[in-house]
Design goal:
single chain; mainly alpha; Rna Polymerase Sigma Factor, Chain: A; Arc Repressor Mutant, subunit A
Length: 197
């Protein structure tokens, strides 16, 4: 029996909560990592992640059970990011996702904070040269390389996230890896990873 001070929770709400917790919460880390790379700082990444999960919970009835939950969550995050950018710039017109990513990358490049969590985590993980090379890739290629090679998403998940055919994902990934290889060739030779002339 529920007390007078505590509202009673319906069975439907309990079921929704349990389903959401079981299906959506396990993907929080990978979404946070992507939000951190996209937003550029820890506070904005946490806000974006929180907004994503609030919207996902609110619209849980729209999620088709058995489909790709991670891609669905990424799409919510991407749309939230775009909407936030529009709101911040007060731009009523349609905003291109590539423009947003370029905008945040230019801000990130201008302000280097030695206490920046993203820099501490990924700078040490990948090394300065690798990080610079990855950041220098064109946005379309960088996004698929990060999602596939760092975050471990499948081609299908990436295709749903960037809303393009799997063939396009494969093509961008191949070209992105080739560009990254070309950019890192000299660095790899200097480090003795490969033998050069």
């Amino acid at each position: 029996m529920a007390s007078l001070n505590q509202p009673s929770v319906s069975r439907g709400t309990k079921k929704k909560h349990a389903e959401f917790e079981a299906e959506a919460l396990p993907h929080m880390d990978v979404l946070y990592n992507f939000a951190l790379r996209t937003a550029g700082n820890e506070n904005d990444a946490r806000d974006l992640l929180q907004e994503t999960y609030l919207k996902a919970y609110r619209f849980w009835d729209k999620y088709e059970k058995g489909t790709n939950i991670r891609a669905w969550l990424f799409r919510i995050m991407k749309n939230s990011y775009i909407n936030r950018y529009r709101k911040e710039t007060k731009e009523p017109d349609k905003v291109d996702y590539d423009d947003i990513e370029n905008f945040y990358n230019s801000i990130r490049a201008q302000s280097t904070d030695p206490n920046d969590l993203q820099q501490q985590l990924y700078g040490n993980l990948l090394g300065d040269e690798v990080t610079k090379a990855l950041q220098s890739l064109p946005d379309d290629f960088r996004t698929v390389v990060i999602l596939c090679d760092i975050e471990g998403l499948t081609y299908e998940e990436i295709a749903e996230f960037i809303e393009c055919p799997i063939g396009t994902v494969r093509s961008r990934l191949h070209r992105g890896r080739k560009l990254l290889q070309d950019k890192l060739y000299e660095y790899a030779r200097q480090q003795g990873i490969i033998k050069g002339d």
